[in-house]
Amino acid sequence: MDIEVRGREQVADWVETALLVRGTRPLAYDELERLAQDEIGTGSAQVALATRALRRRADVLGAAYPFVVNDFALRARPDARRSVYASLVLMSAGSVARATMSTTAAREMEVLFEQLAEQALARVWGDVGRAVRFGWPSEVGRPQSFPAAIKWLADLLGVPAGTGYRPPIRKDGGVDVVAWRPFADGRSGFPVVLAQCTLQAELISKASDVEPRVWASWLTMDVDPVTALVVPQTIADDRLWEQLALRGMVVERLRLAELCGQQEVVGAPAWNNEVLSRLEEHMSMVVQ
Q1: More confident residue, 76 or 223
Q2: Which residues form the domain of 52?
Q3: Is the distance from CB of 36 to CB of 15 less than 8 angstroms?
């Protein structure tokens, strides 16, 4: 990734985290520059680039963006801490929150991210879409055995299980969430998304985890499924985006937030507050 792009996005994420920690108190640009210099050693030029990135995010998401960006200051909206977007900022690889997260919060983060992805991907087709978490281990009723899990998934989709060999040692075949758009006639030939969700920083290898040909032998579908990579960070580097998009649908932070809108994910507000409370100790200058 281009160093300047990476730096800009990371500083923008730090600013958003600072606003979440700060609450609804406005943060003027001169104060932001001072805090960024003192806390992360970032100069005014990089802060200006990061602010430009924030404006773009606000333009893309509109009301789903939990921060207000104007010519005078930045501030978090009153419900910002409860938002899906806040969860994604805190979950992103390289975030200040990840570096200070408790072991319990880190374990909860993995499940919460899949739940968030499940809710978002179901809305690819609006209110009629459906989605289910398929990742292993599972607490949503999925059989732990992979062969049995494939049969369980086929029944949910309303398609026959394929005849391909289902290795018992497989856990989830690289698929964490399955989304689909059923039709009222109950017939085959409907769209399906097989999604890999990752909290890792390295994305290229993860984008190829789901093998459509193999899945075609496990599920009998008339329409080839779409594969997707779901990540909590933003992906501003066009070259990286193109490499990922060649492998499947890319669903990063802005798309997740757009799909979820202002809907909440069960458990997310409490998790956000727990992580932010711990962060207040590490970002004390921001709170003052």
Answers
A1: 76
A2: 3-102+267-287
A3: yes
Closest CA to 220 of 281, 161, 144: 161
| Plot region of 55 (φ>0 → left; ψ -120 to 50 → alpha; else → beta) | alpha
Q: Are residues 165 and 247 in the same domain?
A: yes
Q: For residues 271 and 145, state if they share a domain.
A: no
Say how far apart CA 5 and CA 50 lie, in whole Å: 9
> Do both 98 and 114 map to the same domain?
no
User: 223 vs 196, which has greater pLDDT?
Assistant: 196
**Rounded Cα gap, residues 47 and 20, in angstroms:** 17
Q: Is the pLDDT reported for residue 182 higher than 80?
A: yes
| Cut 0.85: pTM above it | yes
What pLDDT does 264 receive? 87
Residues 6+ apart with CB under 8 A from 282: 96, 100
8 A C-beta contact, residue 76 and residue 66: yes
Taking residues 10-32, what's their average pLDDT?
95
Is residue 3 predicted with pLDDT exceeding 60? no
* Whether residue 165 has pLDDT greater than 90: no
